[in-house]
């Protein structure tokens, strides 16, 4: 029986730190509001003119993950790239990273599941490895949010939350079930598609409209979020899908050594922590420093937790996400 094991982790965040106080200077908001409602103190934004993009940041994280896994880029059988902010409308960032890594040919797949993108990508990687089709999968989550946010008071309920960055994992085939991904669980509910969305530009609102409508004036050209509805659904779905994963593996919440939630809002993560009665040692959050980096948030947090020695061999690690779609999911691993 084949299983998949994370062999290496990497992350990259832009150097440019944007604090809540920086945001106070450009919109009507306050450090107190942002910290109290979200836990965020600062986030990273790509600086105009630097060489970063979603694909470039993803590639930087991928290189670190490959190096730490001691895996040669030519041994990668499949690239899976999760993002909601690709460099181009098409092709996806997966093929861009392939070119940047100088991999001649291999399949490259982009996953469009927003905040749940890394969990969906992990599940895709795991299935390909379990079937025996591929041995080594490079999984990346990366976002350049800052290029598309409404940085005026009108967009403050969204723009103060999101940050840029990338994380990556190298997964490889193993026959050792005791150090592997145990299961993944995926869900979506399309009736809420527009409640957290960016509907333009799109094939419904094409280029002529953009030019005529002066995009900066039209809120449709910026992400929309029904924050309270998203929050209410998030706390329910997070709990359900974590329980689903634990029950599948006959585990109880007390068996969990480390829980990492998609870093959407510190209040959501704290709600889940309390519900499962986990101590601070069993949970890792870093939204305070990076904001919500969507598909990148779990791999950035997992990499950071691993760098700090918080992930040890034999640990039960639980990952979970909820977001736009709505989509949600969990992954249960034994490290
Ligand atoms: O990663 C994808 C998943 N995303 C999430 O899980 C996000 C879930 N939702 C949330 O985290 C929260 O809903 C937010 C943090 C987005 C907003 O917090 P909230 O407590 O739900 O605030 P609200 O939207 O109900 O707004 C409360 C007040 C409003 O003012 P009034 O109408 O009461 O006068 C807003 O206009 O706060 C105002 N407000 C702000 N004030 C200062 C909204 N954004 C800001 C801001 N600074 N940035």
Structure, explained:
There is one protein chain. It is globular and about 55 Å long. It is built from 11 helices and 13 strands. Helix 3 crosses helix 4 and helix 8 packs parallel to helix 9. It folds into 2 domains: 3-176, Thiolase/Chalcone synthase (Peroxisomal Thiolase, Chain A, domain 1); 181-334, 3-Layer(aba) Sandwich (Peroxisomal Thiolase, Chain A, domain 1), CATH 3.40.47. It is of the alpha/beta class and 335 residues long. The protein starts with a strand and ends with a strand. It has a 5-stranded mixed β-sheet, with helices on both faces. Strands 8-13-12-11 form a 4-stranded mixed β-sheet, sandwiched between helices. A hairpin with a 3-residue loop joins strand 12 and strand 13. The model has no long low-confidence stretch (mean pLDDT 95). It has helices at 20-24, 31-38, 54-69, 93-100, 117-130, 156-159, 207-213, 227-248, 266-275, 287-290, 297-307, and strands at residues 3-12, 17-19, 42-44, 78-82, 108-111, 136-143, 165-174, 180-188, 196-197, 224-225, 258-261, 316-323, 327-334. The structure holds oxa(dethia)-CoA. Residues 29, 33-34, 37-38, 115, 156-157, 160, 227-228, 230-231, 234, 264-265, 268, 292, 323 line the site of oxa(dethia)-CoA.
